[in-house]
Design brief:
Strand content: 25-35%
Largest sheet: 8 strands, antiparallel
Number of domains: 3
Shape: elongated
Structural class: alpha+beta
Distance between the termini: 99 Å
Length: 484
């Protein structure tokens, strides 16, 4: 009897001691984070990490809330999402009825440091991407998505990644980086946003609040900054030290497993031109136009005309000291650029609105004229059975007023008699010289504070607008619209 009790007790002790061995999970031999031993990776600058778990006997592995896939003898989770600050990530390996749990500690520095990376798994139902503590903020219109241009269907991968790069070489001596460089990419080169959003970038807090007009966002396809890059301009909020421009997925160079679809950076410009120096150009006095011309040039809205020389902006004629007139094409293009209107797609078999403005003849400005025409901003002339815009003709004051009234969506008085009566009081000397079709627009532009008359009570409707004058008018328009 004693022997039986002793034997039974010994067996029970052996069984109880053996229970942990039966219930124990598969051993986790090694954990890697981004290809490095987890113990050596305490701080990361990306909001996602790739985790590899070596557990040969495991039947399944979970990293945080994500199931790992067995790849080449290791359990892998790509793009394990981290929160800003300290993260405790659980690793659970299971086999049979047992499991083993390990934990790794990772601190995510949510800062715009070179090499930092911010990954968004899907933009569906996402209003905005706040990367690096608002250093780079991408906002989307409601219902936006990535569209596969090859299939004309929603893309299979709706992710977007933002990478941070240190500024490289300056494009020239007149422009200086005042932000990091942000590379934005999607999974495939044929993925594009269904509707454009906006991108807001923080610039150096040391930049003077008075310099907002001289800041601009540039876009580069390859992160080598030069004159071929696109100057996007931007709306500056000096109190927040941010600048905002329209955002769309653009074609760029491939970089690793992602197609880098372009790079964005903020520049400050520091340059002057001879027309604003009375010692170089005493007459005509164009110093007054400097606060309008320079911001438009900095933001890529107004082009230089170097016919007179590299030191000149192009406000005076090459052969004299008379002011250079504005053309119909230049003004229309400036308005479209300044207001940031989405450009029409003129690729492929596209029928131009005007017979005298085609992509072959005007490769740089064709898309802006087409956009203005499709938006109802500009009209042409019907002559000899053709629709003409007359892009090289000089812009008259009444034409400029008409375009401004349309773009600013100013209320028009449909009662022509009342319009005539009001204009007769304002422009006593020459209101009858204003074309009948232009009178409601001239009155609206005058009341809106966009365009004025002369001290003698005249408007000068058929007088030609100069480049300096069109700069002032365009600047007022986009300033009121909060586009700069």
């Amino acid at each position: 009897m004693v022997k039986r009790v002793v034997f039974g007790a010994v067996f029970l002790v052996m069984f109880i001691c053996a229970l942990p061995a039966f219930a124990a999970g598969p051993a986790v031999e090694k954990i890697e984070v981004n290809g490095e031993p987890a113990a050596q990776v305490a701080v990361v600058t990306g909001n996602t990490v790739n985790v590899a778990v070596y557990a040969p006997e495991a039947e399944s592995v979970r990293v945080g809330s994500q199931s790992a896939a067995l790849v080449g003898g290791k359990w892998v989770v790509e793009n394990c999402v981290l929160r800003s600050g300290k993260n405790s990530v659980s690793i659970v390996a299971k086999s049979g009825g047992g499991s083993a749990t390990e934990r790794i500690s990772l601190t995510y520095l949510n800062q715009a440091l070179p090499g930092a990376f911010y990954y968004t798994p899907s933009i569906l139902n996402v209003k905005s991407i706040d990367a690096f503590n608002k250093a780079c903020l991408i906002s989307f219109p409601q219902g936006d998505f990535l569209n596969d241009e090859d299939t004309a269907k929603p893309a299979g991968d709706q992710s977007i990644a933002i990478s941070v790069f240190a500024p490289g070489d300056k494009p020239d001596q007149y422009h200086t980086f005042v932000s990091q460089v942000y590379g934005v990419s999607v999974a495939e080169s044929n993925y594009k946003l269904a509707w454009p959003g906006t991108i807001t970038i923080q610039y150096d807090s040391q930049v003077s609040a008075a310099s907002g007009d001289y800041l601009s966002v540039w876009y580069s396809a390859d992160n080598t900054w030069d004159d071929s890059d696109t100057v996007l301009g931007g709306f500056v909020e000096t109190s927040k030290r941010t600048i905002t421009v329209p955002f769309a997925i653009r074609d760029g160079d491939k970089d690793g497993s992602y197609d880098q679809h372009g790079y964005y950076a903020v520049f400050i410009a520091n340059r002057d031109f001879a027309e604003f120096d009375r010692n170089m150009v005493p007459d005509p006095n164009l110093e007054w136009s400097r606060p309008y011309v320079l911001p438009l040039w900095v933001k890529g809205i107004m082009k230089r005309d170097t016919a007179r020389g590299e030191d000149y902006f192009g406000l005076i004629k090459d052969s004299s000291l008379q002011e250079k007139e504005a053309t119909r094409m230049e003004f229309a293009a400036m308005i479209v650029k300044g207001m940031g209107f989405p450009l029409v797609d003129v690729a492929g078999a596209y029928t131009p609105t005007f017979d005298d403005v085609t992509g072959a003849v005007y490769p740089d400005d064709f898309v802006y004229i087409e956009t203005a025409a499709r938006l109802g901003i500009i009209n042409g002339f019907r002559e000899g059975g053709k629709a003409l815009f007359k892009p090289g003709d000089f812009l008259t004051r009444e034409q400029a007023a008409t375009i401004i009234a349309r773009v600013a969506n100013l209320a028009l008085n449909a009662d022509q008699d009342k319009v005539n009566a009001e204009l007769a009081k304002i422009f006593k000397l020459d209101y009858t010289d204003i074309s009948a079709w232009a009178r409601p627009y001239v009155l609206a532009a005058y009341k809106g504070g966009y365009i004025k008359g002369y001290g003698d009570g005249s408007f000068g409707p058929q007088e030609l607008f100069t480049r300096a004058q069109e700069a002032k008018l365009t600047y007022y328009l986009i300033k009121k619209a909060k586009k700069v």
